[in-house]
Specification:
Jelly Rolls, six-stranded antiparallel beta sheet, globular
Length: about 280
């Protein structure tokens, strides 16, 4: 059983590194040989991996992926992940904090979350690789008077290119139905408020619509009721904390906004089919 911390580790930026932006290119084969990325962790910003050659093996929120070039993946700061290994891989990777993202790009990423690895056309990968190369060069020119602004603007361009590829896979906003627009707004609210807002009514009020109408929109669009989505998001966070930290069930219940931890245990068992302690034991024994 691996040693666990009280909280899920967050890989913070080294002091003075790009003021909230870091971008590098590596060629790796085998183990990462770096415990901070091999352990399950969150990053201190929005993370991207551009797979230029070979394969990267990674686990994100209990799901393992083999990212084969050419491909890209985006990971939200909330997502727990660990690098497993590489097969003759060349990757460009960058992490950028929320305050360094343009507001419209930050909202785009919030709306996209969560995503899976996205295969790229060769010409698209070439554009992304060339843009990443420029960003890496800019990151090394620390004597520039406008160093941080240059790095920030160039990396936002790179983020926009990646977000654009994900958006191309989804329905254009102008073609989205009223139900789909409301469902998207609900999901965005849910990601920000799931520890405090627990009922469909809470979200309907924030959206200035009735609870039955919100439920109709979400169920028509996704096949599941609003309450199902709320419960799934809460239980995902609970699983992250149970699996990756040594916080007690009572502490986790409190973290997620439940003063009555026995109610939380019943909810977890209802949604997951096992108790929190059984889930923890199943995954670590």
């Amino acid at each position: 059983m691996p040693a666990k911390n009280k909280h899920i580790p967050v890989n913070a930026f080294p002091p003075g590194v790009g003021e909230g932006i870091i971008i590098i290119r590596n060629s790796i084969d085998g183990s990462p040989n770096f415990k901070e990325v091999e352990r399950s962790h969150r990053d201190g910003g929005h993370s991207f991996i551009l797979q230029e050659k070979g394969t990267t093996h990674i686990e994100i929120d209990f799901q393992k992926y083999a990212i084969e070039a050419p491909a890209v993946i985006y990971m939200h700061p909330n997502q727990v992940h660990r690098l497993i290994g590489f097969d003759k891989a060349t990757i460009s990777s960058w992490i950028i904090t929320s305050e360094n993202l343009l507001p419209e790009f930050l909202q785009l990423l919030e709306d996209l979350t969560p995503v899976v690895p996205l295969s790229l056309k060769k010409e698209t990968q070439t554009i992304l690789s060339e843009t990443a190369s420029l960003c890496i060069q800019f990151s090394e020119r620390k004597k520039e008077k406008l160093y941080h602004q240059i790095l920030k603007e160039s990396c936002n361009t790179l983020v926009a290119l990646v977000a654009s590829q994900y958006l191309a896979q989804s329905k254009p906003a102008q073609n989205a139905s009223r139900f789909e627009v409301i469902t998207k707004a609900f999901r965005s609210l849910l990601e920000r408020n799931f520890t405090t807002a627990k009922s469909p009514m809470d979200y309907a009020k924030r959206l200035n619509i009735s609870t039955p109408y919100l439920n109709e929109c979400v169920k028509t669009t996704t096949g599941y009721a609003v309450s199902w989505h709320i419960q799934q998001r809460i239980i995902l966070e609970a699983k992250r904390l149970l699996y990756h930290s040594d916080r007690s069930v009572k502490e986790i219940a409190g973290d997620l906004g439940y003063e009555d931890h026995s109610y939380f245990v019943r909810l977890f068992a209802k949604v997951s089919g096992v108790t929190p302690l059984a889930f923890r034991g199943k995954n670590f024994d």
